[in-house]
Design brief:
246 residues, alpha/beta, two-stranded antiparallel ribbon, 41% helix
Length: 246
């Protein structure tokens, strides 16, 4: 198993460096999507969601910003339900990811806190009224599981509430990267989503107010991650709305 994990890590990094042709990018993205779809079809997905925050519930009228750590983003990408929009880095690695999202009917918005941020925020506000938004606030360069202010700023400008979200699997692979790893559930594993209550973010925040809400969302993500880990270890945790994907 150790040999397999090293090879996966090498192949992933090598692909991001060598694939430059847009056509080859799309072919590679299609192949990756096909492989991951096959894996996720064998998994059982369990939602431990606060009422009214389950992203797979197509009857939800409110559209949220789902806060997801970078090492877990593959799970919501392939879990069924409404198709979200996602903020994707303008770095070269993001081009491969954007191509994969397009195959899955997930709308990629290119930009980050360091490149193209203002235009990305404008697109998120104007073009995705009908979709949830997924943001990995510790990307694209880390530190791992450390929230940046961009998600709070976007929520303030877009008038959307933030839903802290943690994904985990009882059996998984971890692909090592430069600053974080990537979680891929193993075939026939159980995948779990935990969400916290949605967080209201007022409009027109000052710098100090943004920092306050960054700390608040960070604390919720940390607590939720701890709860998820305790659940996976067999400990009983607070009961919430619990559904299994069909």
């Amino acid at each position: 198993m150790r040999r397999v994990r090293r090879r996966l890590s090498f192949d992933c990094k090598d692909a991001s460096v060598k694939i430059r042709s847009p056509l080859l990018m799309k072919i590679g993205a299609f192949a990756a999507v096909w492989m991951l779809k096959a894996i996720f079809k064998t998994t059982k997905v369990h939602f431990h969601s606060r009422p009214g925050t389950n992203p797979s519930d197509k009857s939800l009228e409110e559209r949220f910003i789902y806060c997801i750590w970078h090492d877990e983003f593959l799970v919501p990408t392939f879990v069924g339900g409404t198709k979200p929009a996602a903020l994707v880095s303008k770095h070269h690695d993001g081009s491969f990811l954007a191509s994969a999202f397009e195959v899955l009917d997930i709308k990629p918005i290119r930009g980050s806190s360091s490149r193209g941020g203002a235009e990305a925020i404008k697109q998120l506000i104007e073009l995705v009224d009908d979709r949830h938004i997924c943001i990995t606030p510790d990307g694209p360069r880390g530190p791992r599981h450390k929230l940046k202010a961009g998600i709070v700023f976007i929520a303030s400008k877009a008038g959307r509430r933030i839903v802290p979200s943690i994904y985990a699997a009882d059996r998984e692979w971890r692909i090592k990267g430069s600053w974080t790893d990537q979680m891929i559930p193993k075939p026939f594993s159980n995948v779990h989503l935990f969400t916290a209550d949605a967080i209201d973010v007022p409009a027109d925040l000052s710098r100090e107010q943004i920092d306050h809400f960054v700390d608040k969302v960070q604390a919720e993500m940390d607590q939720l991650y701890e709860k998820c880990q305790r659940f996976l270890s067999g400990e009983k945790v607070e009961r919430v709305e619990k559904r299994r994907a069909a």
